[in-house]
Amino acid sequence: MRLSTVTLLACLASAAAFLPVVPHHRAPARASFALRASTSDSVRAIILKNTGDDPKVSEYLSKTGDDKAEFEELGFDSLDMVEFSINLQKEFDLPDMSEEAFAGLKTVDDVVKFIEGIKK
Question: Could you tell me which residue ranges the Carrier domain spans (predicted)?
Fold first, then answer.
């Protein structure tokens, strides 16, 4: 009886070699959109954490799109931006960012695009 079980398993394993190979397809655009939304949500959460969950900041972020949400409007000074960059590096496992590269990030959308560019 044991021999027949082994024989059956061998037959099944060898039959799998004749199955067609399914090519990998590119992820649909929705996955990209979901990743972007997830990145945006994470960036916004870091902003709220940096501001001590300030209700004014929360209200501003909820009413403002990523492309319009400027750090200057959030009241971020240079020290806030340094703390924000450190938290971004930890959250997204980013390499050290130069001061010049980070200075060019003026909106939440700029940060999301920057992170997605690195993560590609």
Answer: 34-119
For 107, the 3-state DSSP assignment is: strand
- Contact between residue 69 and residue 108 where contact means Cβ atoms under 8 Å apart: yes
CATH class of 30-119: mainly alpha
Location of structure tokens 């799109």: 65
List the domain boundaries for the chain: 30-119
Contact assessment for residue 85 and residue 97, using Cβ atoms and an 8 Å cutoff: yes
Confidence bin at 30 (pLDDT 50/70/90): very low
DSSP bridge partners of 105: none
